[in-house]
Design a protein that fits this description.
Layout (H helix, E strand, L loop, with lengths): L1 H4 L2 H18 L2 H11 L18 H12 L5 E6 L4 H17 L2 H15 L2 E8 L2 E7 L4 E3 L13 E10 H6 L5 H11 L2 H23 L14 E13 L2 E10 L3 E7 H5 L13 E4 L13 H28 L2 E3 L27 H4 E3 L8 H16 L16 H16 L2 H21 L7 E6 L6 E6 L10 E6 L1 H21 L4 H14 L4 H13 L30
Antiparallel strand pairs: 1-14, 2-3, 2-9, 4-5, 5-6, 6-7, 7-8, 10-11, 12-13
Helix pairs in contact: 3-11, 4-11, 11-13, 16-17
Amino acid sequence: MAEELKTPELEMLINNKTTGFKYRERREQHWRDNYELYRDEVQVNRLTQRQSVNAPLMKTQLRTLLKDVDDMPVVVFENLDNDKDKEIFLNEYWKLVLDENNAEIQDIVDKKQDFFFGRTFDSWQIEDGKIVFDIEDPEDILVDRFMNPYDIDSSRFLIHTHIFVTLGELERNKDYDQDKVNDLKRFYETQLGVLKAKDNENTLERKNQKMADLGVQDINDPLLGETYVELTIHYVKRDVDGEDQIIVYVEAENEVILMKKPQEEIIGVTEDNFWRTHYRYNTWGDDVDKQDFWTDGIADIIRVPNQIVNSWLSQLVENRTMRNFGMHYYDSNLAEEGFTPSTFNPVPWGWYPIPGDPNKVLKKVDIPDLSGSLDEIEFLQGLTEKATGATATQQGIQTERQVTLGEVELAQGEAKARTQGISKFYTKCWEQRAKKFLKLIEAAPEKIDAVTLYKKGRNTDDIHEREVAPKDWMTEAGYRVKVWNQDEKKANQEDSINKLNAVFMMMQDNPKLKEVYNRKLLEFADLEPDEITDIMEFEKSKGMQPMMPGEEGTPQIPGQPQQQPQVPARI
């Protein structure tokens, strides 16, 4: 049977998988080491790691950096037909999708994966009437080694491995060729099938090895009565009528192709045939390299110093233990005279008989003090902090060196700026995610269920309910995506208000300028657009323009001079 299944098409899929795996294989041991150090697990050996001790350098550094990375970027869709109602519907639906998919939590996982692997992936699809967004494990993704490292859609293939399902699930899936499923069932009943199942078990074991290393003993226990099959989904660009088109293959155990369909047929057709050449996956990394897709992560900077510190700490622990043993050499020739040293229990004012001169009969085993290595460990920690930007100040640790407050703030600001530099990479990825979100809706609006949205009305505290579906927000011209990170938005707002301050000093009697300035202040206070509109309309309804902060009759912003309005201090 196996020989019959090895068609040229199947051989092509197997070759792609082998090529992609070999391209990524060099990184896998590093990933495992990074993860074990983060989870405070070390592998004891007889040479360099004799004691099970781990300096929490990996966790300290990564968690310090994670706290300084910006929050999830803000994504806003602008309707190109200027239909504000439809624009509101789409933006509210986007918020609902993010909430249903726990996007805030997944965004943290996304950034941690970049730290660990140097590369992270996500996928988008329509499932059971909803748009589903998932952060994928980089260890499950294979790509073409000749792709453009900063454009996932340039890869000739993308492979999603390690998808384990039961034979029963294959039988219930109407998209799969049931004749092939039956062939697969008969295959598992043969001796060769038993061997293949064992290979499958080994693959699952390697995937679960990280959890086994952390002490989970039953991670590989089989489930009685179930036969698990490993599926691999291949997305391959192939020539169709003279142009590239992504074809989706579902392959099982390198033995059979259960499904083959154009991706456009699975997802749906857009006006520009978007899904012919674009994968439903996105990826980003903060250390993009033109030569190599699988680049280093921040954890790779920390790994080797952490291993060295662990080795030195292991030696230090063992050294202190051995020194405490009080071991001695003795003259074995005295055994002929009937003297054999024995262990004496220490007692106050104790006397211990030894024949002859104790200095000649006994000699203490010399175990040198290794406490001097603490300075070297501190040096390595400082070196690591400089390399990653997660300095002691960023960790909230007060240093002994006397410096001015200005120097501390400057150093802290520079270190934080290095960390926030990562945001330009994932902000661009969120833009790609938003565009593929729009293309999913455009391709298959009929597959998306209507949802009920709740929103507070204007000039009232009442909550209004509205059921909407894709037809309620789709327009002919479509939408434009705007994405910005939170810190950049704050900085731009501050800069804009500072500039307006200078302009206002020259045009203090301009009512329109006052209105613009007050609107900017309300935006700086993170109020919702509807709330800003309500506040501005209320001010107008009083028959006067909103007054500037600091003017007579208005409260002065704390900590600012009376004569010139300034930007409110950031809390």
